[in-house]
């Protein structure tokens, strides 16, 4: 069990550029979640997947944000035309999912985005 | 939006003392989880307590849950400098996909 990994760990970009983050969940975990955390606040839910299906998107996820999990394994989160307000830590978590499985979510180290 | 409040927002104690922090939430839940976050890093899962449980222990951690008051507490006994971190409670509801709704966190400083 290698844990949840995220890449890159840090990203600095200029306003208006597109960025893409990747999350590799714990193998055999069916559920994958994305959260965003701004300085001094708790994480806020963005979206989640059950296998390859995206089941819910938060209102925080504007049209500039898109997430995919094409084969039910890794996931990508893309932000188009970045704005300074997008600067935050983007956290990914996975859980086994399923009726009898643990509800515990395991978090990756996060990707810190800075938009200049 | 945040589920509720954590109290206190910040806590400073001496090594060896106990640290207690509280969490309140607003809606129905299936479980409540506590996480630790060291500065600028990811969240580490500490303990999960289900809605039909009232108390749970794990090492130096003790968590209580009062669903009638929609509140939980986390007690860290015999604190160590390494316990310095932010602590977050998060609630989950299976019908809502188990997505976590976090509080604002308690920043704990343990002085050696």
Walk me through what this model shows.
- The complex is a heterodimer of chains A (116) and B (112).
- Chain A is an all-beta fold and 116 residues long.
- Chain A has strands at residues 5-7, 10-13, 19-24, 31-37, 44-50, 53-57, 65-68, 75-79, 88-95, 106-107, 111-115.
- Chain A contains no helices and eleven strands.
- In chain A, a hairpin with a 6-residue loop joins strand 7 and strand 8.
- Chain A is globular.
- The N and C termini of chain A lie far apart (37 Å).
- Chain B has 112 residues and is mainly beta.
- In chain B, 0% of the residues lie in helices and 54% in strands.
- Chain B starts with 5 loop residues before the first strand and ends with a strand.
- Classes of the chains: A mainly beta (116), B mainly beta (112).
- At the A-B interface, strand 4, strand 5, strand 9 and strand 10 of A face strand 4, strand 5, strand 9 and strand 10 of B.
What labels would you give this structure?
heterodimer; A: 116 residues; seven-stranded mixed sheet; four-stranded antiparallel sheet; 11 strands; globular; B: 112 residues; mainly beta; six-stranded mixed sheet; five-stranded antiparallel sheet; 54% strand
Which SSEs are present, and which pair or pack?
The complex is a heterodimer of chains A (116) and B (112).
Chain A: E1 5-7, E2 10-13, E3 19-24, E4 31-37, E5 44-50, E6 53-57, E7 65-68, E8 75-79, E9 88-95, E10 106-107, E11 111-115
Parallel strand pairs in A: 2-11
Antiparallel strand pairs in A: 1-3, 3-8, 4-5, 4-9, 5-6, 7-8, 9-10, 9-11
Chain B: E1 6-7, E2 10-14, E3 19-24, E4 31-37, E5 43-50, E6 55-58, E7 61-66, E8 71-76, E9 85-92, E10 101-102, E11 106-111
Parallel strand pairs in B: 2-11
Antiparallel strand pairs in B: 1-3, 3-8, 4-5, 4-9, 6-7, 7-8, 9-10, 9-11
Task: Sketch the topology of chain B as an H/E string, one letter per element.
Answer: EEEEEEEEEEE
In angstroms, what is the radius of gyration of chain B?
13 Å
Q: What string, H for helix and E for strand, traces the elements of chain A in order?
A: EEEEEEEEEEE
Unreliable stretches covering 5 or more consecutive residues of chain A:
none
The pLDDT mean of chain B sits at: 92
Uncertain residue ranges of chain B: none
What pair of chains forms the biggest interface? A-B, 27 and 27 residues
Strand content of chain B: over 45%
Largest sheet of chain B, in brief, is: 6 strands, mixed
Using only C-alpha atoms, the radius of gyration of chain A works out to 14 Å
Query: Oligomeric status of the shown chains?
Result: heterodimer
**Overall mean pLDDT of chain A:** 92
Q: What percent of residues of chain A are in strands?
A: over 45%
Q: Could you say which structural class the secondary elements and strand pairing of chain B correspond to? A: mainly beta
- For the record, give the distance between the C-alpha atoms at the N and C termini of chain A, rounded to a whole number: 37 Å
Biggest sheet layout of chain A: 7 strands, mixed
**Helix-strand makeup class of chain A:** mainly beta
**Helix residue percentage of chain A:** under 10%
């Amino acid at each position: 069990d290698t844990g949840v990994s995220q890449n890159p760990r840090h990203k600095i970009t200029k306003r208006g550029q597109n960025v893409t983050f990747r999350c590799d969940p714990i193998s055999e975990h069916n559920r994958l979640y994305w959260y965003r955390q701004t300085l001094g606040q708790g994480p806020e839910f963005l979206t989640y997947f059950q296998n390859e299906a995206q089941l819910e998107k938060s209102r925080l996820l504007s049209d500039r944000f898109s997430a995919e999990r094409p084969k039910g394994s890794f996931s990508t989160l893309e932000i188009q035309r970045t704005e300074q307000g997008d600067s935050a830590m983007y956290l990914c978590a996975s859980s086994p999912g399923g009726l009898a499985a643990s509800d515990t979510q395991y978090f990756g180290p996060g990707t810190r985005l800075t938009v200049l | 939006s945040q589920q509720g409040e954590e109290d206190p927002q910040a806590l400073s104690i001496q090594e060896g003392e106990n640290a207690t922090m509280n969490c309140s939430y607003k809606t129905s839940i299936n479980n409540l989880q506590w996480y630790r976050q060291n500065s600028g890093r990811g969240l580490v899962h500490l303990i999960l307590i289900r809605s039909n449980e009232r108390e749970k222990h794990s090492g130096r951690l003790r968590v209580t849950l009062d669903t009638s008051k929609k509140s939980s507490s986390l007690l860290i006994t015999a604190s160590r400098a390494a316990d310095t971190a932010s602590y977050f409670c998060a609630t989950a509801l299976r019908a809502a996909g188990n997505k976590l709704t976090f509080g604002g966190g308690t920043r704990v400083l343990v002085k050696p």
